[in-house]
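Subject: Sanity check before I submit

Could someone independently write out the structure tokens for this chain? I want to compare against mine line by line before I put it in a report. The sequence has 655 residues.
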Amino acid sequence: MPNTLELVLLLLAAAVVMVAIFRSLNLPPVIGYLLVGTVVGPHALGLVPASEGARHLAEFGVVFLMFSIGLEFSLPRLMAMKRIVFGLGSAQVLGCIGLVMLVGRTFGLGWGGSLALGGALAMSSTAILSKLLADRMELDSRHGRETIGVLLFQDIAVVPLLILIPALSRPAPEMASTLGLAGLKAAGLLTLVLVFGQRLMRIWVTVVARRRSGELFMLNVLLITLGLAWLSEEVGLSLALGAFLAGMLISETEFRYQVEEDIKPFRDVLLGLFFVTVGMFLDFRLIAANLPAVLGMVAGLLLIKCAIVVAASRAFGSSPGTALRTGLWLCAGGEFGFVIVSYVDGLALLPPELLQVTVATLVLSMLLAPFVVQASDRIVMRFVASEWLLRSMELTRVAAQAMNTSRHMIICGYGRSGQYMARFLEQEGIGYVALDLDPERVGEAGTAGDTVVYGDASRHETLMAAGIMRASALVISFSDVDAALRVLHRALSLRPDLPIVARAGDEKDMERLEQAGAAEVVPEAFEGSIMLASHAMALIGVPLNRVVRRIRDVRNQRYALMRGFFHGASDAVDGPDAGQMRLHTVTLPAGAHAVGKTIGALGLEEFRVTVSAVRRRNIRGVLPGVETQMLAGDVVVLLGVPADLELAEARLLNG
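---
Independent answer below. Compare away.
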């Protein structure tokens, strides 16, 4: 039997390997933790025995998870989404629990065990689905909002379920009094904490924060979290409820985001340990013996849960396509299902075989969730006839906006950055078509007269309807790199010569976007630092012309397309810009020295001149490579200082 240090090293090594594999496969790491526990647990290799100490330590993972949920709990947010959260969300959770209780009672299962099982199966994965929504740019879509609203209600519903489940193990005569007493205790604790706790919490956290010690602040967060969890357990309730209340209290202070970052390492590590202990509970021999039941339960969970969500969504006025999409997104199991199962296991509410089948069902359904989501569009198109009409109407609206435009810009994303971009274009008299997936934003901006339509910029048909073949440029105004890469791939597959400007949150994303084909990438952090520096230099007395020149030099070094300018008759020959980098065009006639030669072979670097672009048959190629061969009729755009440009032009024409 390995000692404690060996056990810790074994679990860490197995967890690192498995989580790394699952991350590389874009699968949820929670499945990796579950498999680690299964392999090293008592039912497989037997390297780690099932012990109460490990189970109690793992409970702290649930404590910190519930604390994080409490931090996200916001009454204004709930009120803004109350119809979806409390309407659709409650219909989904109560519908699943009610149906499982009906089936459970039919097969002779106690109503307490049936309720607990229904609660476990009703949950969906907040971590998996919220990431998929963000990756697919569907957070603001109709089904995205419904999915987030239902997930929010599920997170809230865990709290009363964790209060109810311990009472369900009591004998029937005691159950009513136990539930009533637990309800009174919960109400009293909630009243005490919410009425008096918020003011005290704000004062106390502010006092600690003024000490300006990160160590002290972190210790204080742990004290509050574990202290309220202990208080909750002392009055006969769960540790998780106290942690949830602690998160709620801190969420009302200005230190919420700092606390969230500080608590994340504890939460992730301990929650990983919790899932490892759940995996140790899995017995593959029992699952193999009941494999038909597992597969049947997985199929039943996906189909029945999807049907419940579809019916509820339709009842709340959603279109058939939106309802089916929401159902497909929410049909799989989730992390809180394991939390509820772990409570049920300790109370012996369900037979061991059924618990094993339930855990296996949750694991398999979470593995299938990303694939179901990926296929959701095809499934909706296959089974919802009206979806073709709605998609056709959407494309018609996009095409109607772009029909009378040419040489226009396509703006992907109409948030703040996209709207500022549109204002600049309007002032210059340049046409544009903006695409966005937020229906409210599109409705309001469209009513105001902006040329914005609802559409997914990563779709082939949407870009075609927006007139990409006639557009002069495309701008990606959002900073989600993965989504931007999808738009880049789709746009360049349709128009390889189209100049694309992309926005990046930081410089680390620039290389990925540039390699994907973006003509220019604008990092927000870089631009913000330039403006901070320019204002600071101006305020301390640095001459304005020097500040402007410094900014221009820095930008020239960063942005290849912003280097230089075309000289005109109105530009002073001996002014301050006389020696600056400028652009100059040279048209190559038949018989010119450069015709038939590559840019690299021309040796323009000896004149300190670079080729900024080449225009050929009215198609402009930006930043051509050294292997690009010059043809008669090409317009070559050179970048350099005036004296060097003359030498480079002579080389191109005469050799």
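---
OP: Matches mine. For the report I'm noting this point. The CA atoms of residues 277 and 591 lie 78 Å apart.
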